[in-house]
Amino acid sequence: MSDITRDVMKVKIENLFLYYEGVMALKNINMKIPNKSVTALIGPSGCGKSSLLRCLNRMNDFVPNAKVEGRIYLDDTDIYSPGMDLIELRKKVGMVFQRPNPFPMSIYDNVAFGPRLHGVTDRSRLDEIVENSLKASALWDEVKDILTRSALSLSGGQQQRLCVARAIAVNPEVLLMDEPTSALDPMATARIEQLIRNLKNHFTIVIVTHNMQQAARISDVTAFLLMGELVEMGPTEKIFTSPEDQRTADYITGRFG
Ligand SMILES: Nc1ncnc2c1ncn2[C@@H]1O[C@H](COP(=O)(O)OP(=O)(O)OP(=O)(O)O)[C@@H](O)[C@H]1O
């Protein structure tokens, strides 16, 4: 195996089960997600990719009748332990959704929202965070003169980069992305993919994607899920060229899904 196995593991998932209304959606998932890299979750529709992603920052807590069993460690902290502060957890584990969802407020206020929530009030500090976050999300040059304009006036691709800026403004450790380019055209998709490649130097990224070419292009590690189970996980190149499991081979060659 490559360097990946020697790298520090940022997230460890142990014996994870997820049930919706008593129906099992994730079955005994065990996974280690390497630090400062991109891990792609792939698999056919309904296999549990988004559910697994949402377990990583406890978004499933919002789903009535969802029940999680097992352990997920962020570094050494069990995020399902009773004392876990969910606001702190979601500061450390940020999320970007399928459809760009900027808040109906200015571009500036979108990015400043998280830092303000976490107590930053100093204007020059906020200015600095907003500028750095927009630069890191490759949006600064396009919006630096229109920061007070409504975020909703931006194009879809710009809105999604703004959502990335908003997510990274609180300096998370992990960034979860749930099909972040599925609503975007090829040009906007290419920009987000380049952005993800740059961001992995600073964050641990976990991305759900339907698009296997995208997984191959941007991820270091790929995990293949099928019917709520993790079939196989490994370096992306290996998963796409010489998978161990026949079901992975069938999926990546387009035999189903
Ligand atoms: N809120 C919910 N309540 C009940 N069942 C749910 C809920 N969310 C997801 N499920 C079920 O859990 C299973 C996994 O869904 P999930 O959305 O995680 O799959 P997915 O692989 O992300 O699918 P897709 O690629 O279509 O988005 C599916 O059978 C789905 O119907």
What is the topological layout?
Layout: E1 9-20, E2 23-34, E3 38-42, H1 49-55, E4 66-74, E5 77-78, H2 86-92, E6 93-96, H3 107-117, H4 123-136, H5 140-143, H6 156-168, E7 174-178, H7 186-199, E8 204-208, H8 212-218, E9 221-226, E10 229-235, H9 236-241, H10 246-252
Parallel strand pairs: 3-8, 3-9, 6-7, 7-8
Antiparallel strand pairs: 1-2, 1-4, 4-5, 9-10
The structure holds adenosine-5'-triphosphate (ATP).
Adenosine-5'-triphosphate binds at residues 20, 25, 43, 45-51, 63, 210.
From the helix content, strand content and strand pairing, which structural class follows? alpha/beta
CATH architecture: 3-Layer(aba) Sandwich
Total number of helical segments?
10
Assembly classification = single chain
Roughly how many Å apart are the termini? 28 Å
Q: What's the CATH topology name?
A: Rossmann fold
The radius of gyration computed from the alpha-carbon positions, rounded to a whole number of angstroms, is 18 Å
The CATH homology group name: P-loop containing nucleotide triphosphate hydrolases
Q: Tell me about the biggest sheet? A: 6 strands, mixed
List how many beta strands DSSP finds.
10
What's the number of domains?
A: 1
Beta-strand content: 25-35%
Bound molecules: adenosine-5'-triphosphate
Query: For this structure, what is the CATH class?
Result: Alpha Beta
Give the spatial strand order of the biggest sheet: 6-7-8-3-9-10
Arithmetic mean of pLDDT:
94
Shape from CA axes? globular
The low-confidence parts are 1-6
